[in-house]
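Recap quiz, item 2
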Amino acid sequence: MENLNKATIQRLLLYYHYISDHLAHTDGVSVSSAEIARLIDVDDTQVRKDLSALGLKGCPRVGFKMAEVKQTIRIRLGFNDCHKAIVVGAGKLGGAIGSYKEFFDYGLNVIALFDNDPNKIGLMIGDHVVQPVDKVETFIRDHDVQMGILAVPADTAQDVARKVIQAGLKALWVFSSTHIEVPENIAVRHEHLLGGLAEMLYSMKMQTIKQSV
Amino acid sequence: MENLNKATIQRLLLYYHYISDHLAHTDGVSVSSAEIARLIDVDDTQVRKDLSALGLKGCPRVGFKMAEVKQTIRIRLGFNDCHKAIVVGAGKLGGAIGSYKEFFDYGLNVIALFDNDPNKIGLMIGDHVVQPVDKVETFIRDHDVQMGILAVPADTAQDVARKVIQAGLKALWVFSSTHIEVPENIAVRHEHLLGGLAEMLYSMKMQTIKQSV
């Protein structure tokens, strides 16, 4: 099966969300590529190409079975798999990400949170007690954890990343405000919230200047 | 003054973070463009060009004054401004974003949270009591709020966006898993956490397949 590129993954996710919302609000069982295309502002041909690449064939004048499209996207993107994950850094952001139930529906199963702050260790966050970070490597090995969510301060993030990868993690989802280097065989994704904020505030500032000229 | 593009904003932010960390750990007052370049994996010439575009001149063999670089970046990116912001959708994610103290240092001042869930209204999140969402428009007008953080369910996000923009918001930071259309004069930034998660899980899946072949 062909590999999906990032843009295709994002489109499939949009189709998936659109159908999930649509399914919840209509009695219909089918959806046409034109309907999907219109609502998410993508070309109709692109939608049909993407769905056809997943092996989905629509019926003329009826469209695609919504439940089938949804399940096929779930399987192809791996949402039906169950990935054991841990959070390192149980501050506000780490705690929120770690106890955000919606991620579970996408195959992410957070089974533990870790921190180095004695005031946080022992606290309940969501369904889990915060554990001391010096136990994280043993935990990863004992529980065969695959994924790590990093929400530690920027200046310790690379060091934590090195440790958890050495202990066996295959993927890192990084919320620390820094760039983490990982070996080639490790999946990594940075969510630079401060970068997003900076871009938005700057673009708001430019708008204000433009309007006052 | 020239407008900054997104890539430049992200580089300035990296310099800023690097210097903030560096300042905290050394006794030095100066930093060379080569040092910055080496640590964040950007070309030395690029660093000098970016800093020179901000009007900063380094001294030969000494480098740039760290405090001056930091302040100049803060002013240019607008971190020293104070933007009044509200959060709509006081679930786990909205609550975490709304009470995340680090954003304040970047000019974002969250002054209220709103939700439509009677079980959430009245709760304390961070320093604020969650207010009913039907008061959001009056609040925006009364307090001259400029920015909104949306963390409502995907299927209501566009509707909420329309209302808050009509009430006067100039910028939206969207954490709902959907794409929001806004008028041209409104700044918008989407943080598609589920999109990031999907990309990362897929890339981990592909790595596993590659290694097992």
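Chain B has a mean pLDDT of 89.
The two ends of chain B are 55 Å apart (CA to CA).
End of item.
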